[in-house]
Structure formats: structure tokens, C-alpha cells
């Protein structure tokens, strides 16, 4: 199990456990674990990337697939705590336009509280 999933104030919080790379090796597991949660209408998910130093194309594809799942049923997915390296990849791919990315978990929680 590479993910820790908790709930706080009605927000599903997801973070990686003992992992610094989000790659093909873990993308299927992440999708399999999170897709059912996002399929619940009105799921509000916060995906915390605080320890992730690298993402590959499979990880990006996984995040896009999860975002599409959320959007299709009225759920939402926000990303936070992206390291500078990971944020740069998102910016190079112009994914910051698609995803709601915040700097900290607290700011992401505050966005959901609005």
C-alpha cells in the first residue's frame, strides 16, 4: 500500500507513504484505489504530493484519468504541495490550467471550505 487515505471535514486526503517517485510502477495501484472514491458523487479529494520528487508520463496519465472520473460524476480533485521539480513538469505540460493546484494542504482545505 503506497497511499494513505484519510478524511477530514468531509475532504478525502490522499498522500503517498514512503514513496518519492510516482511512476508506471505505482500508477495502476493509485488509479485502482482512488477511482472508486471519486466515483462517489460530491467526493472532494485533496491529493498531497509533499514527498514526491519525480513523476513520469504514466503518473500524469493517472492523474488526468482520476480528474476525468471526478469531473464526470460531480466530484472534485485538487493537488497540493507539489515539489518544485514536479510543479515544473506540470507547468511544461500546461496542466496547471486544468488542475486546481495549491501550495499547501491548508490552502487547499481552505479552498474547499469556500
Automatic annotation (TrEMBL):
Residue ranges constituting the STAS domain according to the UniProt record: 22-95
InterPro entries noted in UniProt: STAS_dom (IPR002645), STAS_dom_sf (IPR036513)
Name of the protein in question: Anti-anti-sigma factor
CDD domains: STAS_anti-anti-sigma_factors (cd07043)
Gene3D superfamilies per record: STAS domain
One Gene Ontology MF term: anti-sigma factor antagonist activity
SUPFAM superfamilies linked: SpoIIaa-like
Amino acid at each position: 500500500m503506497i497511499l494513505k487515505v484519510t478524511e477530514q471535514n468531509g475532504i478525502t486526503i490522499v498522500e503517498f507513504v514512503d514513496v518519492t517517485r510516482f511512476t508506471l510502477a505505482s500508477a495502476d495501484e493509485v488509479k485502482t484505489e482512488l477511482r472508486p472514491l471519486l466515483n462517489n458523487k460530491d467526493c472532494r479529494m485533496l491529493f498531497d504530493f509533499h514527498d514526491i520528487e519525480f513523476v513520469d508520463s504514466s503518473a500524469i496519465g493517472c492523474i488526468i484519468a482520476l480528474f476525468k472520473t471526478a469531473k464526470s460524476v460531480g466530484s472534485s480533485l485538487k493537488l497540493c504541495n507539489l515539489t518544485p521539480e514536479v510543479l515544473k513538469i506540470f507547468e511544461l505540460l500546461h496542466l496547471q490550467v486544468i488542475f486546481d493546484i495549491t501550495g499547501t494542504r491548508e490552502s487547499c482545505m481552505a479552498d474547499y471550505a469556500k
